[in-house]
Amino acid sequence: MYKSVIRPFLFLFDPETIHHAIFRQLKIAFKIPVLNFFLRKYFRYENKKLERNLFGLSFKNPVGLAAGFDKDAKLVDELADLGFGFIEIGTLTPKAQSGNEKPRLFRLPEDSAIINRMGFNNEGVASAVERLKRRNSRVIVGGNIGKNKITPNENATEDYDKCFEALFDVVDYFVVNVSSPNTPDLRALQDKEPLTNLLRHIQQKNSEKETPKPILLKIAPDLNKDQLDDIVEIVRTTGIAGIIATNTTISRENLQSSEYKIKEIGPGGLSGAPLKNQSTEIIKYLHKRSEGKFPIIAVGGIFSGEDALEKLNAGASLVQIYTGFIYNGPSIIKEINKKILKSSI
């Protein structure tokens, strides 16, 4: 029903406008006891065999929501009721920022893909903290953190530090995002020296806490093998908990959408089905080069249970969805979990 009726209707509207409209409707729906019961009953799928223990955390299932969907932690309880094993909020920055000029979110239905150049639009870390203090569910929440657009790279550590300190008591793990293509010069922080310095700083802050929390790094899919080797070395030397692979790509190769449409949309990060193989290959490479010594959370082109299994077989420990959630609807969570359970991975 979602693909045949609901999605065609939703896709009649501007992507960003309908995104916020759905948020409002879900808030209303889950406040109505009968609807709440129905939605939980229909979409949630639980089985002890799906539970995963990673980073010292216990995940009810290995299917998470990637960062970018619920940037400001407005829908954590409702998304948990749809069956996600974990939810990653953000990317959050110290100060609120409006992001890039609209329009900045585009669908490519021919490719089951999305292009975005949102630019870390968010209400600021303090607003998310207040919402997380009021949440009811105990779903695992990750805090994806970044820097403000106006902050120069030489001062980026201060922004990540502020977000880390603000979120520490209300999230279960952190993700350092230096891989978005939509904030000018951000990806320069992926270079070995600045990235090592940044992660060491955050790890030092983390070690000073009574109970440190897992810190992960989200990487771009556009890194070459030498850069991936650097990532493996950086994980080893800084002692961070693991990697999220991967963010959106700046590549436009092998798309079915017309060249005119792609050119008209312009720059931005591409997510969805075209990213699937690229993401999987990076996971395989990192897993092999590291000899499986650190966990990897897979994201990129997951539209089915088979896609998720491909990522897990490549070396991932958990998976996240975003574009597949938009194209296939919330039933994809149950579908993936059933497939994983059946495969006994």
Automatic annotation (TrEMBL):
Q: How is the cofactor bound?
A: Binds 1 FMN per subunit.
What is this enzyme's EC? Answer: 1.3.5.2
Q: Which residues bind FMN?
A: A67, G68, F69, D70, K71, T91, N144, N177, K218, T246, G272, G301, Y322, T323
Annotated membrane topology is: Peripheral membrane protein
Q: Which InterPro entries does the UniProt entry name for this protein?
A: Aldolase_TIM (IPR013785), DHO_dehydrogenase (IPR050074), Dihydroorotate_DH_1_2 (IPR012135), Dihydroorotate_DH_2 (IPR005719), Dihydroorotate_DH_cat (IPR005720), Dihydroorotate_DH_CS (IPR001295)
Q: Which family does it belong to?
A: Belongs to the dihydroorotate dehydrogenase family. Type 2 subfamily.
**Functional summary from the UniProt entry:** Catalyzes the conversion of dihydroorotate to orotate with quinone as electron acceptor.
Know the name of this protein? Dihydroorotate dehydrogenase (quinone)
Source organism per UniProt:
Splendidivirga corallicola
- Quote the gene name from the UniProt entry: pyrD
